[in-house]
Amino acid sequence: MIKIHNITKTYNKGTTKVEALKGVSCSIENGEMVALMGASGSGKSTLLSLIGGLDKFDSGSISIDEENISELSAQKLADFRRDKIGFVFQQFNLIPTLSIIENVMLPLLPIKMKKVECYQAAREVIEKVGLRPREKHLPGELSGGEQQRVAIARALINKPKIILADEPTGDLDSKTGAKILDLLMTLNKKEKVTIIIATHDNKVAEVAKRKIILKDGEAVKL
Amino acid sequence: MSIPVFFEYALKEVTRRKSRALLSILGIMFSVALLVGVLGVSQSVEQSALQPMKSAGADMLVQLHGKPCAFDTVKLPTNLNAMPAEAFDNLGDNGEISATAGVLEFLSFKDGHPTIITGLDPDITNIGPIKPTEKKGECCEIIEGRYLQNTDTYAAVADKEFAILEGFKVGSKIDIGEKDFEVVGIINTGRTARIAGAQVFIPINTAQQIVNKGDIFTTIFLKLSSQADPKAIEEKIRTAVGEKVTITTSADFLATVAGMSAMTKTMATGISLIVIILVTLFVIKSSLAAVYERKNEIGVMKAVGWRDRDVIKLITLENVIQSLVGGIIGCFAGYIITYLFVMNSNFAIPAAITSYPACAASTLATDLTVTVVFSPYLILIGMSVAIILGLLAGYAGAKRISSLLPSEALRQL
To answer: Are strands B216-217 and B83-84 parallel, antiparallel or unpaired?
Structure first.
């Protein structure tokens, strides 16, 4: 379970301070599929990055399965991200020179694992997103939808409990976007993966069981 | 961590950023080539130029330069005066000199043609112009007959080239100072210049009798012991022989023959080191620029669970790969620099040390054999510099980028 309590986060933008989150509190059950909604600048991406341990917050607490992530050292936080979180970015963030399978294996590199095992694990998740025939291709040779599926495969390789998706369909056409959402829904239903999607698109939010709406850094609807 | 996969990733990154990698490789190659080249040239020049001193087994030469008096049939070489043998009698008493050999070089004229003669002590073979050996191809191989013995008087050993020219064989007679000498051996001194080299070698006592100036030497070879103070020994020699005496040490010899003093060598190495420092700064800057170009990728790596040290390892490994390539090419380029420089250099034994008359029937070799010395030690230095440079540059770039929070590296989230 994810418990977010009274989180504040301020950014320095030049000489001015921008309050991105103003005491947000909420909780998300294991296996839930939640949409974080709000306009651009409402703080949804910030909240997503704080849940994933990508950034530090000013005050409050976030605990995941009773583990307070603000108390983790940088190394432990890296391990936490690797073991529990899968990220899906709007712009896919694949490494262009690495093949699909190599991109998917990226989270495994810091782990002591045999090469053959790395490849085997990567093939399993690539199969899951339906891209096995294209595993040796470079990202540039794939369509946007396929690239996002690769990103999902990369997020899945460590069997995370939580997938944090930031505008996962933002760079895709509606048809491809729908396929990506289907894939995320399937993962949620079949594998009970907690999925939190940050989006400003109502169609995307409709697939979620619950919506958390943010406005000007505050949660207005839980 | 899966090392082979990790290495594959690093290698791909290097090959992907070709222009950046090429710049770094060129920088490393340039500095390694320069350092290895300078060291290679200095080692090769040193080896080639010091050959006469090394083959004589000496650290120091003592000669008295000047214009000797003319003789009817024999005379001292143009530039060398006689030094009394007794002046050197007590030099080695305190153990600072481990070996001494005095030789008497003179010219013997017959029908207007000089023959270059060196009188030497047959019992001293560890230092001096000749180290007789039976080993084939080595200097100074006795190819016929035998070497001189301390019981010999009018016996001579002829140099192979001279013997061929004059048709001498073992048993032939040579006129030296109107005395008949029997050729007891033919020796191959090679065609490389030697200090106190000669066409004919005879026993020192007989040489001194023929020159008829008493117990004199023209050149003294000295081998110093490890604890010896060369300056103090020079002072002793000057006191014993006179202020006009010329003392040549290995360092002087190197400076005279190759124009390479300790200072020029230090300067060249110093310049190489300055270049290495500048290249290091350039490679670090290039590495920093390269990692900042990949800020987003590093952010992804950190987001998927890479620790800071994993990022540092990958980037450092990439730089080490570049360094290895740069180092290997640099060592090769350094060898080419050494080869081109050394093979186009001519080193000759200084005229002041051995003065051979141009009118001699066959002149002795004055050119030194130039050899390219490129030891594994140089490759070790070159590769070490390259790897250290790569580690420094890689670590500097990696450390800075890895310290960023994943969210700072990732602009999208």
So the answer is: antiparallel
Say what the ipTM of the complex is: 0.90
Query: Total structural domains in chain A?
Result: 1
Domain ranges of chain B: 3-51+260-409, 67-243
CATH code at position A109: 3.40.50.300
How distant is the alpha carbon of residue A15 from its chain centre? 31
- In chain A, the residue whose alpha carbon lies closest to the alpha carbon of B15 is A97
Confidence band, pLDDT 50/70/90 cuts, at residue B327? very high
Q: With bands split at pLDDT 50, 70 and 90, how would you rate the model's confidence at A6?
A: very high
Residue numbers in A near B12 (CB within 8 A): 97-98, 102
Q: Looking at residue B347, what DSSP letter applies?
A: -
Contact status of A120 with chain B (Cβ, < 8 Å): no
- The DSSP secondary-structure symbol of B88 reads G
What is the total residue count of chain A? 222
**Calpha distance A189→B274 (Å, rounded):** 65
Chain centroid to Cα B186, Å, comes to 29
Query: Which among B307, B405, B410 is the nearest to A56, CB-wise?
Result: B405
- Which residues of chain A lie closer than 8 angstroms to B310, CB-CB? 109-110
Q: Compute and round to an integer the Cα radius of gyration of chain A.
A: 17
**Residue carrying structure tokens 């390259």:** B386
Geometric angle at alpha carbon B151, from B150 and B155, rounded to 5°: 90
Asked if residue B48 lies in contact with residue B349, where contact means CB atoms within 8 angstroms, the answer is: no
Extract the runs of DSSP E, i.e. beta strands, from B155-208: 155-159, 173-176, 179-188, 200-203
Q: Phi and psi for B290 in degrees, rounded to 5?
A: -65, -40
Nearest-CA neighbor of A128 among A154, A153, A92?
Answer: A153
By residue range, what is the domain housing residue A116?
A: 2-221
- pTM of the shown model: 0.70
3-state class (DSSP) for residue B82: coil
Residues whose CB falls within 8 Å of the CB of residue A89, separated by 6 or more in sequence, listed in order: A151, A166, A168, B300, B410, B412, B413
Which residue type is seen at A42?
A: S
Contact B407 A81 (CB under 8 A): no
Q: Backbone dihedral region of B78: left (phi > 0), alpha (psi from -120 to 50 degrees) or beta? A: alpha
Secondary-structure breakdown of chain A: helix, strand, coil percentages, each rounded to the nearest 5: 40, 30, 30
What is the spatial distance between Cα A167 and Cα B89, in angstroms, rounded to a whole number? Answer: 98
**CB-CB neighbors (< 8 A) of A118 in chain B:** 2, 5
